[in-house]
Every structure is written in C-alpha cells, then in structure tokens.
Amino acid sequence: KGIEQKTLKRMSEIIKEKFVSAKPVVLAGPGIPYDMVAGSPTSLVAASDDQKAATLIQEIFSFENLRVYSHSDVVGVELGGALKNVIAIAAGICDGLGLGINAKAALLTRGLAEISRLGIALNANPLTFAGLSGMGDLIVTAFSPHSRNWQVGNQLAKGKRLKAILDSLLGIAEGVETTKAAIGLANKLRVEMPLTAEVNKILFEDSDPKESISRLLKRRLKSELW
C-alpha cells in the first residue's frame, strides 16, 4: 500500500501497468496485527474494480474473528489506507506534546477532511472515508501504541531526531515517505492540506512541533465545510 513518490501513483495503478490482465484487490481497514494475532474481532474492506474479485477475497479472508466487507471504490480505499499514516504521525505528535483529547479529536477530524478533499479530487467516493478504510483505519492507527506512525510522531514531539527514531523501529513507518507523496499530490491537484504540510515540515524541515501547532491555529478562519 502507499503512493509511489516519483509517479504519485497508487499501488493498484502500478500493478495494472505491469500486469495488464490483473484484477488487483485492495485489503484495508483497522487491522493492527498485534490485536489480530491475539484473536480480537476485526473488520476490513476488500476493494476492487472487479466485484467478483472483491467478493472472492471477502470470502477467503472472512472467518470467526475477521469480517470482510466488499467495496468498489479502489481509489478511496487506497487513499484512506495510505494517508491515514500521515495523520497518525500528527496524532503521535499531539500526544507527545500532551495537548489533550480535545486537540486530538480536532486533529483527526480535520485530518480526515484533508484526506477526503484529496480523494474527491481523484474521483473517490467521499462516503468511503467515513468507512473502515478511512475513519476506521485512522482511529486505530492514531490511538494504538503499536502503531509505528504514531510512535514516530510521539518521539518527534519529545525531541528525538527522525533518523534515530526510524533506526529504532521494528518495521517501517510508512507515513514518513507517504507524507512526501501526499504533498506532491496536493500540489499537483491544488488541494489544501495544511495539517499534512505541517507534518512534512516537522519531518523534513526540522520545524518545531509547537510552532507547527501555532501556525495551524493562526490560520485564517473559515467554514468547516470545506
């Protein structure tokens, strides 16, 4: 999953280019491996342009503790699964700074609005972002201490350097590289993504997290929609 930096293409797009007859299915949603291995009830979504393929994956993966829903909005499901990692980094920063639950709730809500705006610009169904691959995946990734993206943000807020954080992780924090791709797409499509832009500054321009928060709060007042 994710967005390729050089081309700004989604993984399903790349697969189709390499394998013309392929019918890729995207499996996404709030599925932290730690909980799944422990047998916790989990719901995911399988999305494909080919509904027979989506249904097949739905049936293969569904069992006692895992319920899979089918979906046709591949763009929305892929974007939600990729971009939620960027917002999860922001959530980790919020927690690391001790800003409280009000701030975190606002951050997640406005973060989802940014994801939705970019998705709409790419012809995704906006309702998809209220589902498992959007809000669902965002919630679990932003709140779970097992989330590597949350860990990155949390440690950045406490003053640690990005390289040291990434070197200490047991795995890859996908949101770090996805942030660059998200900024590329936002610029290309002229979509406003202020929260993502501040995450990018913190990650790659050594912006002080507290200064980023201040800039976000001082932005011009506007309607919530949009």
Give your account of this protein's structure.
The two termini are 27 Å apart. The longest helix is centred in the middle third of the chain and has 23 residues, at 74-96. The protein has one domain (11-217): N-(1-d-carboxylethyl)-l-norvaline Dehydrogenase, domain 2 (Orthogonal Bundle). The protein is built from eleven helices and three strands. The protein is globular, with a radius of gyration of 17 Å. 59% of the residues lie in helices and 7% in strands. A three-stranded mixed beta sheet has the order 1-2-3. Helix 4 (74-96) packs parallel to helix 7, helix 9 packs across helix 10 (194-204) and helix 10 runs antiparallel to helix 11. With 226 residues, it is mainly alpha-helical. It has helices at residues 11-18, 33-37, 51-61, 74-96, 101-121, 132-143, 148-157, 162-168, 174-189, 194-204, 209-217, and strands spanning 26-28, 42-47, 66-71. The mean pLDDT is 96.
Which tags fit this structure?
mainly alpha, 226 residues, lipid biosynthesis, N-(1-d-carboxylethyl)-l-norvaline Dehydrogenase, domain 2, single chain, globular, oxidoreductase, glycerol-3-phosphate dehydrogenase [NAD(P)+] activity
Layout of secondary structure:
Layout: H1 11-18, E1 26-28, H2 33-37, E2 42-47, H3 51-61, E3 66-71, H4 74-96, H5 101-121, H6 132-143, H7 148-157, H8 162-168, H9 174-189, H10 194-204, H11 209-217
Parallel strand pairs: 2-3
Antiparallel strand pairs: 1-2
